[in-house]
Amino acid sequence: MKKKALITGVTGQDGSFLAELLLQKGYEVHGVIRRTSVDFRSRIAHLENNDSFHLHYGDLSDSMSIMQVIGKVRPNEIYNLAAQSHVQVSFDVPEYTADVVATGVLRILEAVRICGIADKCKIYQASTSELYGKVEAVPQDENTPFHPFSPYAVAKQYGYWIVKEYRDAYNMFCCSGILFNHESERRGETFVTRKISLAAARIAQGKQEKLILGNLSALRDWGYAKDYVECMWLMLQQQKPEDFVVATGEQHSVREFCLLAFKYVGIDLYFEGQGENEKGIDKDTGKIIVEVSPVFYRPTDVVNLLGNPTKAKEKLGWNPTKTSFKELVRIMVEHDMEQVARERLEENIDLYKIEALEKGTVE
Ligand code: NAP
Ligand code: G4F
Fold first, then answer.
1. pTM to 2 decimals?
2. Are strands 182-183 and 244-246 parallel, antiparallel or unpaired?
3. Angle at 223 between CA 187 and CA 291, to 5 degrees
4. Which residues line ligand 2 (CB under 6 A)?
5. In this predicted model, what pLDDT tens digit does every residue of 245-295 receive, in sequence order?
């Protein structure tokens, strides 16, 4: 019998990598998707013809749909990755964020109980380094106190504690992976790393003039998403449910990410100025490439995340440095250089077609 996994958030960055990993491992994979006005699910489109891959409509804000999917699939493992996952957006839509990111976790746990599979189904909860927020110690590990610093982080804190509560109260196998930032060529375009890698590619190919960012000094522990989903799976293969910090143990600033991304596209930058007046300047041409705007500042910003992955390394045998920071930036930039080149080619073909239509050389 194939093991059955249910992934909420399957259309997201992590969900798509995890679905690939579990299919490779021989699982029957079920994903929860939301109805959207545009039906193309770009990150999982290549999986949709796989006989072991099944999609179900559902929404974490709708307990009936969650109950129905869980009751129908009766999975051996649930990976709860669905979330309104953008920290800045959580300041604009705090109530919705709380509903999905906090109460959504409760809906999953209760559905598993009500469907009578609490003793058979292992649950992974996508927890986050944002819990450390206004950090109380550096680096952060499983024992570092939490200090959430955004509506998103406060909601994730509820998710973390309710998972622990169900583990203690009902003896359920449920655990949280406290994942530090992990990025990839599939990262959403409004997260800072992808915003930078795409802008570097567009600027290098003449499709964008400038990149406007917020806090350049924020420090993050950035890893590669493909490596991190492996750790999610490892957590559910243990005898005992436990929470783990998943991180690389290395820290870089947004400014450093910029310098490296632009270097990979052949633009050598240097930064000068302070705060809102700081600029990233092309060493060869003297052109201003990066500027700062307070539009991208957050009411409260998390500025010093650095994880200690010792427990995951020792207990799960997970390798936190499989993909280095340099390699991660290179993967993202190379992907985006190709994506932008493809977009330019398509634009040129369209222009050529329009010209030909106007000249009457084609129908
Ligand atoms: P992502 O790319 O933003 O994907 C989020 C997923 O959740 C998407 O599939 C989205 O569906 C789905 N979703 C959103 N609201 C939903 C709802 N109401 N009902 C059902 N599905 C919903 O996020 P990610 O980077 O893959 O992250 C995965 C999880 O890990 C999230 O819970 C995130 O908070 C957490 N996390 C991420 C990181 C990181 O650095 N990436 C670090 C720590 C924790 P649509 O495609 O329809 O929008
Ligand atoms: O890329 P970010 O938006 O990621 P953030 O806020 O760290 O959240 C991500 O990682 C969390 C794990 O710690 C996840 F839980 C969460 O779901 C999400 O995946 O911002 C990173 C840093 C911030 O300090 C932000 O202020 O970059 C700074 N930043 C500077 N300029 C910017 C920008 N962030 C964004 N999104 N856009 C900017 O222009």
1. 0.97
2. unpaired
3. 60
4. 85, 87-88, 128-130, 180-181, 190-193, 195, 213-215, 218, 220, 254, 296, 298, 301-302, 305
5. 999 999 999 999 999 999 999 999 999 999 999 999 999 999 999 999 999
